[in-house]
Amino acid sequence: MATAKKENPYHFTTGVGRASYVNVFYPNDKGKYNITFLFPKSDADTVKKIQTAREAARITLGPKKWGSAIPKPAFVVYDGDGVRPSDGMPFGDECKGMFVFTASCAAFDKKGNALPPPFVLKKLNGEIIKIIDTTEFYSGCYCRVSCNVFAYNVEGKKGLGLGLNSMFFVRDGERLDNRVDPETDWANAEDSEIESDFSNNTESDFLG
Asked: CA–CA separation, 81 vs 91, rounded Å?
């Protein structure tokens, strides 16, 4: 008889939300892959999953990092109707009515060797496949996220963070990174415009 796989009490998967600040194909400037995820406050199932995983990590993992279980450790899920912890400024309009968290994973090991990026998946023709085209997963698309809660104690700062496992693309959405489709930008370009006439020197007027 096959042995049942033991469930990871610190792991959870979310319902559908929106991706933001996507760095899941290439590392950010801190040497990590990361994503900020926005999900509706009305998503009671995801809220319960996160609360359960957080409490398991606080009780079991916390004492190993902190020496004891802290009653209310710092946590990385925030109210999108409040202010950003980084600078005290309000979250963007896209965060209204949402909970917001950032999850990340290392892009390099302790020896500096590159680690593989997290899996980004989608369903195509009934099969789940890995997304290779980096333009398919972006800030603003709708997705689901798989995370682990972990305890940390760094330079005296103690709390619980979220490790990024994988993402599942659900559908397209309005971009949140202000990027514009280049085909839209140049849809009306004429051949005569491409063959520019540089005979008129406007440098002096432009630069003053």
From this structure: 7
Taken in order of first residue, the domains within the chain and their CATH numbers are 11-179 (2.40.50.140)
Give residue 23's pLDDT. 96
Q: Which string of DSSP letters, residue by residue, matches the chain?
A: -PPPPPP-TTEEE--SEEEEEEESSS--TTSEEEEEEEEETT-HHHHHHHHHHHHHIIIIIHHHHHSS--SS-B-SEEETTSB-TTTSPBPPGGGTTEEEEEEEEESB-TTS-B-PPPEEEEEETTEEEE---GGGS-TT-EEEEEEEEEEEEETTEEEEEEEEEEEEEEE----SS----HHHHTTT--HHHHS----S--HHHHH-
Tens digits of residue pLDDT in 182-200:
666 777 766 655 555 555 5
What's the CA gap between 5 and 74, in Å, rounded?
A: 31
What residue type is assigned to position 36 of the chain? T
